[in-house]
Amino acid sequence: MRKPTLQDVADRAQVHRATASRALNPATRSLVNAETADRVERAAQALGYRPNPIARSLKTARSASIGLVIPDLTNPLFPPIARGVEDVLGAVGYNAWIVNTDNDPAREAAAVESMRSRNVEGYVFATARLEHPLLEQLAAAESPVVLVNRRAGRSDIPSVTADDATGVSLAMRHLVELGHRRIVHLAGPQGLSTGLSRLRAFRQALADHDLDNAPERLVVCRSFTESAGAEAVHGLLSAGVDFTAVLAGNDLLALGCYDALGEQGLRCPEDVSVVGFNDMPFIDKLSPPLTTVRIPHYELGAEAARLLLEGLNEPQRHPRSILLPPTLVVRRSTAPPAGTTTGRQGGRAAGGRRAATPHQAPVRPVRPAV
Prior knowledge:
elongated, 6-stranded mixed beta sheet, transcription cis-regulatory region binding, 12 strands, transcription, Rossmann fold
């Protein structure tokens, strides 16, 4: 059975073929009278006609699609970002081609080359490193690119990120107000903007609160993963580092803290308070539920898609970047250090936990189990 063609649709709707094409293309539908566009749409539905996006792409060099490059689809951080990108793009007739790279530069380069051969019009990258040769190549080729949840070393590539400095400041203020003075930071890899900016903010917070900046209380983790967080905390405990709270560079590192503390017979928050960063889905279901800095992941994706569409529609516009505000979500993984009061917050710790009282166990230094 012969497939219906665009000419068949035009004939049935009694319009020119070019008018039918514009009416069926979401990007150009507004150029056609609404009544005519509806008549064309009804004709297409009656005939069972489906536009051929590949043929349209070959003819116009435009595919109405963008590439969304994700480092790890198993990380719960990224699905809300992808949803935000897709929702904004879908509203104007664009599609997102999602590729997972597993943080492998060769795999990433192959995926981008494949998308370029299919006339993908632009890219949203969630994989950006501070030094990223592929991004340099795309920028040199004037390919529209927006970074999401990451920044690059160069300032002329638009990005949408959370305000990491504010997030760290909120977390540190919370811990200090609970009475913590010996706070450890598990930093993410320093080749990623999130790892670097959160570490810088931690150091600034130490100065702001007049806290000891002993180098042994800072660990740069090999990756933003649960295993890396556990490895870091095991190292701190083995070295006999004295601390009462951990600010983790992301929620996965905080999960690793839980693992390591439990294996050493230490309790959270009774022995060590833990704060994460991101507020991933289901992180409130942990035992105890994790206090964390909430990043607006869906909004990150939505704003990145809007920035990319802005660049596609106004290529001469000067690139701009957006910072979105985080919030602190206080749950039950943070409490005053054992044997202390709540500090400046009065009778209850933030998040509803009752303050420790003098008859409770004395301060327990955090040391490796024997």
